[in-house]
Amino acid sequence: MSKKPSKSKTSPSLQLGRAVEWPDAPEKAKLDRVPNPQAGTDYLVRFTVPEFTSLCPVTGQPDFAHLMIDYAPGQWLLESKSLKLYIASFRNHGAFHEDCTVMIGKRIASEIRPKWLRIGGYWYPRGGIPIDVFWQTGRVPKGLWVPEQGVAPYRGRG
């Protein structure tokens, strides 16, 4: 006898697998988490966001960044569709580079409580000056392999 494939075990409260409204502000965005089936194993998850946008809070001009989010999961994984919706909610949000980067890192850390998390915000130059912002929750777990973030530097950075 063959077994029928099991249906997805996602919670109806998750945004995954259904149409949802795009949030128009970060505070309106919901970050979903799902149980980590490898919770007893230390490993690294990386999300790369090469087209992040927000607005300058002073001029209203668009700001662009390449975000790298690395985390060592604990009991929870960050669900990627909810991350995409959260990231998109910054498109009309006015905040400085430092505030956006740290806000994202802190929000993810508070929602999924990873063993460790770091975020690198590599902001494209405005006025000829690129700004890079880094934040992490604490020390890297012993024995965890954490690759370099690998974002190419700008010519002239030194």
Automatic annotation (TrEMBL):
Its EC number is 1.7.1.13. It is found in: Cytoplasm. Pathway: tRNA modification; tRNA-queuosine biosynthesis. Keywords: Cytoplasm, NADP, Oxidoreductase, Queuosine biosynthesis. One of its GO terms (molecular function) is preQ1 synthase activity. Gene3D superfamilies: 3.30.1130.10. GO terms for cellular component: cytoplasm. GO terms for biological process: tRNA queuosine(34) biosynthetic process. Pfam families: QueF. Residues 1-33 are annotated as: Disordered. Belongs to the GTP cyclohydrolase I family. QueF type 1 subfamily. Catalyzes the NADPH-dependent reduction of 7-cyano-7-deazaguanine (preQ0) to 7-aminomethyl-7-deazaguanine (preQ1). This is NADPH-dependent 7-cyano-7-deazaguanine reductase. It comes from Bradyrhizobium zhengyangense.
